[in-house]
Amino acid sequence: AIARLYRTMDRFTLGAVDTVICVSESLRQLLIQRGYPADRLMVIWSGLEGLESPEGAEEEHPEEQPSVKSSPARNPRGRPTIGTVARLAPVKDLDLLLHMAAILREGLPDVECIVVGSGPERASLEEMAAELGLVGTVRFTGRVAEVRPLLAQMDVFVITSVYEGGVSMSVLEAMAAGLPVVTTAAGGVAEAVADGETGYIVSREQGRGALAAR
Q1: pLDDT tens digit string along 17-51?
Q2: 11 neighbors 37 (Cβ within 8 angstroms)
Q3: Where are the alpha helices (DSSP H) in 77-206?
Q4: Which of 34, 39, 176, 213 is most buried (CB neighbours < 10 A)?
Q5: Alpha-carbon dihedral of residues 8, 14, 19, 22, nearest 10 degrees?
Q6: Rg (CA), the chain
């Protein structure tokens, strides 16, 4: 009902504006499908102000940095670690992340999965983690004020969303911290990742095994 109300308000006010800014091409295409005039839709992707790199990161010669295919583990603790920063809500499909962690643990017994954020699904996700035998593998941090120290503990940033209208700010923060991103083809997120260069994009149809492999 709320979504319908917003769409009605948008259409009512559309005649009073010259241009509608979309934060991703995916969102632009969605609005075109809903009848918005294509010639009045402009894409300006989300961005971040400059962030300091994690301590010890090499940033003077970015062209010399290894590609995602050859990048060594950057986690100072030595434990292979994946993670995400997200609202713990159904659209983020963090069930999929937990199943990925279970698959990874078969080949990497000491793998860790850090889940940063809060939301209505936290209790059910913790219960699922226990059912999958992931106690000690998955760490739920809850909401934190500063994510960069936790990003510095990760080797790979993972997004399992069903849909992202824009470019997720958490993905931009992870990339600014030097993390490769493995993501579902979830709207604007897929526009931020150069597949095979800064991370990997996996369609939901390929399944959890393909995400875990990447």
Answers
A1: 899 999 899 889 988 998 889 999 999 988 887 65
A2: no
A3: 94-107, 122-131, 148-151, 169-176, 189-192
A4: 176
A5: 0
A6: 19
